[in-house]
Design goal:
This protein has about 120 residues and is mainly β. It has strands spanning about 1-5, 10, 20-25, 35-40, 45-50, 55-60, 65-70, 75-80, 90-100, 105-110, 110-115. Strand 9 and strand 10 form a beta hairpin.
């Protein structure tokens, strides 16, 4: 089993930045993919960004050029640097890790709220 703890959400003004972190614990040696999803009120959960252990990266079109995903394999931690935030980025952001699938879809974090508002 893998446990995920997210941090870094909050309230930010449009154009601002936030950095999300997600630390994995438990049976982490076999984690292949790590990533972030988000779910806004009344909408389906969507993939935001993902990164594999070998460095393969993908982004949703809506965040390309503004968000950067990275991971520290030694710390079993994945990050999401979010710049130039927009009100439409407001959502609960969920971390996800997976032993074999791409994009990740196996273990979920508890979610962290990101609100972009003036």
């Amino acid at each position: 089993q893998v446990q995920l703890v997210e941090s870094g959400g909050g309230l930010v003004q449009p154009g601002g930045s936030l950095r999300l972190s997600c630390a994995a614990s438990g049976t982490t040696f076999s984690i292949y993919a790590m990533g972030w999803y988000r779910q806004a009120p009344g909408k389906q959960r969507e993939l935001v960004a993902a990164i594999s252990k070998g460095g393969r990266i993908m982004y949703a079109d809506a965040v390309k050029g503004r968000f950067t995903v990275s991971r520290d394999n030694a710390k079993d931690t994945v990050y999401l640097q979010m710049n130039s935030l927009k009100p439409e980025d407001t959502a609960v952001y969920y971390c996800n890790v997976d032993r074999s699938h791409w994009p990740p879809q196996d273990y979920w974090g508890q979610g962290t709220q990101v609100t972009v508002s003036s």
